[in-house]
Structure formats: C-alpha cells, structure tokens
Amino acid sequence: MADLPDAAACYELLARMALIRRFEEEAGRQYQRAKAGGFLHLAIGEEATIVGTTSVMRDEDFLIGTYRTHGHAIARGTEPKRVMAELFGRVDGTSGGRGGSMHIFDREKRFMGGYGIVGGNLPIAAGLGLASQYKGEDAVTVCMFGDGASNTGNFGETMNLAALWKLPVFFLVENNLYGMGTSVERHSAQTDLSKKAEGYGIPGARADGMDVVAVREAVAEGIRAAREEDRPTLLEVVTYRYRGHSAADPEVYREREEVEEWREKDPIENFARRCVEAGVLGEREVRQARDAAEETVVAAVEFAENSPEPPLDTMYENLYALDDPGGWYAVDERSPEPHRGEREDRMPDSARELAEAGAAYAEQPDDGQRPNPALQGDAQDGAESRVSAEREVGDEGEDVGSERAINTEEDEG
Amino acid sequence: MAELRMREALRDAMAEEMRRDEGVFVMGEDVAVFQGAFKVTEGLIDEFGERRVRDTPISENTIVGTGVGAAMGGLRPVVELMTVNFSLLALDQIVNHAAAIPYMFNGQARVPMVIRMPGGGGHQLGPTHSHSFEALYLQVPGLLVACPSTPADGKALLKAAIRDDNPVIFIEHESLYGVKGEVPEGEDEVLRFGEAAVRREGGDVTIVGVLKMAQVAEQAAAKLSEEHGVEAEVIDPRTLRPLDLDTILESVRKTNRAVIVEEGWPHGGIGANMATLITEQAFDDLDAPVQRVTGADVHMPYSKRLEQAAIPHEEHVVSAALATLEGSL
User: Fold this and answer.
1) pTM of the entire structure?
2) Fewer beta carbons within 10 angstroms: which end of chain A, N or C?
3) ipTM of this complex > 0.90?
C-alpha cells in the first residue's frame, strides 16, 4: 500500500473528496426537486479517482473529461456554487446555463470541459497537447474518459496519433465497470483496459480507484512521463459508481449486493479511517472536512437558487466570436416578422413577445405530461418501481414523491 | 495582379498566413510529403517543415478533433480533409464540438480553425466521391461556410478564414483547382465574410450561383443575353454563412425574379433555404416564383452520360431563368 502523504495533503484529499460526495448527493436531491433538468450523471463512489488525479496536477496542466464531471471541475478549483448554478441553468453557472450538467467548463482553472459525446474529448485532448508542445510549454493534458469510450473509434485514432506525434497527454480510463448499463465483460473483448492501447505503442497500468493514494502515485508517474518525455501512457483506474448511470437509470443490470460490496470499499470512509489510524488526522479534522463540505454545498444551493435566469436577449451570445455579429450569421424564424438575423434586441416587439411566450413554457410544472424522455412509455411503466431519482413534482413545483426514490444513499456528509 | 490557378492561390494564402502568424499550421492526410491529394499544399513542407505541415493518419474525426483542441489551446489550425465526402467521418467533431464549443461553454473557449474540403462532381468518381455538402454545413449554427469560385476569392477568403476566430468550413470545388484567374498581390488582400460579388449586372433576372455554379451561372447569363435578349444579374454569394442577403435582395427588388443554382441535392438545399429567405423578405417584389436549379436527387452515378445529366449546366439555368420570365418576354 502506498504511503500516506503529509497531514496537510491528507486533509486536502479528504476535504475535496467529501466536498464532491456531498455536492453530488445534493445535485441528486435538487434533480428530484426539478431544480436541475436534463440528464444528471453523478460520480458518487468515484471521488478517489478524481481527487487522486487532480491532486498531482499543476495549475498550468489541462484536464478534460466526460459528462460526469461536476467533481472534476470542483477538484480543479471551480467554485461548487458555479457548478450548482450551471445545473440550475442560471447565469452564474460555469457556462451561463448554456451547457448544463454534461458540459461544465472553467477556462481559468484549465478544466477544458465536460463533453456529452462518449469519446468526443479524446481527440481534443490530443489537440491541447499538441498546442502545448507546439508552443514549447510544459503543460500536460490529462484526458479522462470512461470504460465505454475505450470502444469508440476515437480511442484507437487518438491513441495512435498521440503515440505517433509523442504528445504530452496522459490518458486515464475511469473504469466504473459499466458503459451505461452494459458491463465491461459484455462491452469489451479485452477487459483489462490498460492493455487496449498497447498495440499503438502506449503502455498501460492499472490502479485501485477506491484508494486515493494509489491513484495519486500512478497518475503522478503518467504525468511525469508526459511532461518529461513527451510519452503518452494509459492508466486504467478501477472504480465504481454507487448511483445509476444517470438519475433516470432503473438499474436492472446489476444486483444490489454488488453495490453494497463496493460501498465497503468506500474511498472516503476508508481513507478517513486510515488517516486516523495512522495518526495523521484526528477525528476532529475528519468532522471538520465534512462540516466544511456541508456548509459549502448548502451555500452553493442558495447561490444557485438566487442566480437569475439567463435573459432572453442573450440567446445568440457567443454563438460566434464577434463583438457585434449583425447581418445574416444566424437566422431567426420563430416569428413571421421580417427580421435582421440573430439579435433579440433587434427583434420587432411581436417577435419578442413570441420569444417570451416560448420561455413561459419553462414555468409549467412537470406534471407527468412531460416525463423524462428516457422513461417515456413502456420503459417508464416497467422502471417506475426502481427509478433512482424519478422526478415527481406537484403543481407548485414542490417535491412530492422523493420517498419513492430508492437507491439514494444516506447523507454521509 | 498575378495569374494563378485556384490551387496556387489557396497555397499562397496558407503560406502567407503561416509567415505572418507562427500559430498557423496545416495538417491533414497527405498534405506534407505527398504535397496534397490535389497539390494544394505543394511546397509548404519545404518552407515550413514537419512541425507546421503535418501528415496525419487516416482518422478524420480525430484530425478535426485534434484541430479543435489545438485551436482551444491557442493555435490556428488549417485542417485539410482530403475530400468533402470524408468529412462525414468527422461530423461529430465538426457539429458537436467545433461548432458547439464556443456557445456551450459560453465564450470561454474559441475554436479558430479552418477545415478545408474539396468536393463536387464531374470526374466520374461515383456515389461516394462526388458530394456537395454546402447545405449540410450551412445548417449548423456556429460554423462559417465559404465557397469560393475564383482564385482571387479563394486566396482572399482563405486568408480571412485563417484570421477568423470562428470555425470555418472552407469548401473547394475539385473542378476549379486548375482554373486560372487574376489574383491581387499583397499580404493583406483579405475578403470580409458576408460580402457577395455581383459578377454581371442586369435588370431582367437575378441568378445566384454557388461555388462552381457561379461560373455556370455566368455562362448561362451570356447565353441569355446573346440568344434571348435577357440581361441577367449574376451574384456569387462567396460565403453562405454569413450570407450577404442584402445584395441578393437588392438585386431581386430590381429584377423581380430569382434563380438559385447549386450542385447539391434539392431537398433542404441552398436554393430551398435562399428561396424561402427571398420570399419572406421580398415577396411583394417577386413577379414569379423563385426557381431552383440543383443536382439530381440521386447518388452520383459513375456513367459519364448519367453523371453529366445529373449536374446542372448552363442550359438548365437558362431554362429556369426563362421560366421566371414567362409571359413577360
């Protein structure tokens, strides 16, 4: 077993993991309250993988991930309240409410995105690495993706290109044993994912994703190889998500016992216990880490609740990198009026009224007429009893059905 | 002025921008040692070396994706996809990433890259090597789409595209690479996107021709004048997004008639879209329904006879223009 780092580092690791855990639990709760929309992919159980990785990155390094990256951004230093505001679709969100849960981004922290397309971030990581190398900069790009992405064409293409061009990129596959609901044994002929890039000349290694110290050590070596030798490597980190693939996952593909077994390996509980037993941290500090997480997350929800909705006249902002697009860059066909293109503030009043009319649909309560698209029809009927976080909201928008939701763990702080 | 072929003009544009900006580099399949499948990148590796002129594996989605990442990292990649046809393999990176990233990350990331792709029919390359996808890329918000028809425009638009902070789909026509034209000299001859060219003035009918069809439209206009006494105004939009609709509308208000010529498929095509815009904006000025001339609604056949019958020629344009004038001649 890898040695513990010093007390300050241990506290930081514990505090970050606890913060992500608490944030994700709260995100799930806010989803049930219909405060967060769309799909919600939680990383509960995967905290050691995330924090172990970011803890050995430099500020100048880039991190790029998947659609399950609330925690990755937070681990890089993005304020949790801005991530929560993004889940709420508000102006203070990391993408001003344009991206949502799957598309968190923080340029300042060099968190280069959450991406909704499986495997879509891999070639982009190669490009970020190429840019650093081309400019003679020391930065390493850390590219994290799931076990499912290792089956995409992008995986093979990017491994080949990164090895061929000797790019300063470190690849980390977060193997949580399922690509959505398909187990790794059922989706990959090679289940030792660390071997999947060997044919491209990229050596692989494996680490225990439930042990933050083990992840740290393995990632540090991969980053070193990328930074000092321009040598991309692949690390498979074996981990587990306690929650479903998304909040709309009835989890028919795995047994409850399996989830319980993995909970025994909980990365936060076990790390805290180890730190206390080793005398590196006291019980008081463990509590302090949890209390701090609680405080931060409660404040994050309050911040998100109070953040304004995006104004309608910002609809076309940042579609193009132009101070004042003007003319026919984008065409507005939401009203019958003759128009001048993309700017809402140039719209005639009647068109503005129609835009407002459209936006008003956002205020309608989710009364079952517009169920989660993943649960429509027969699937919904069958899944109902096992849905992990089905949103049941009354006329006033209040949560009336969260008791029915199973598979939501206790508040573990 | 120098007389250059389209391929030379495009190469000069890249070379000049690479000299001007260290962040500009070229990558694609066979762009370096092979000198480009259509010889557009000829000589670049000799001047700029392998760091800035990069041969890639045949991995279209990853080529574009690497360009996206490099652009987000502060470079200005000029990516060559060997043909428009192969760009279908990169659609995810083009649509879900290059086009979406600036918007979905709310301006925190820019994707200043050019994706060059030659296409079009006429060379008996059959169903998978003869596509015209101007309309496909026009549809995607976040992209700019350029379709130059002359060497001068090719050079000036490509230079502008490289300097632009947005992702640009730069569509070239394989049949135009060898066409010669006068090209102004000077490093700063760039062309603003969204400025159409009026190739020929006339008061009877407006003909808008895209890419190679801009030339076919000009030939048709000459024939209309000689054989029918009809004076057509020919407009080459040069960029489809942004579109210089103002110039087109101004012409239609004068001629009261419009014909749109493109090589691509009819459904959801350039003409379908432009006809709608014209009808919405200038319905009262129209004396006849807007006419479209498009490629045939089939996969491009190999047979030379069938292929030529599938591609619009000046006769089709003349016929469409005369149809808008029916009863008024």
Assistant:
1) 0.92
2) N
3) yes
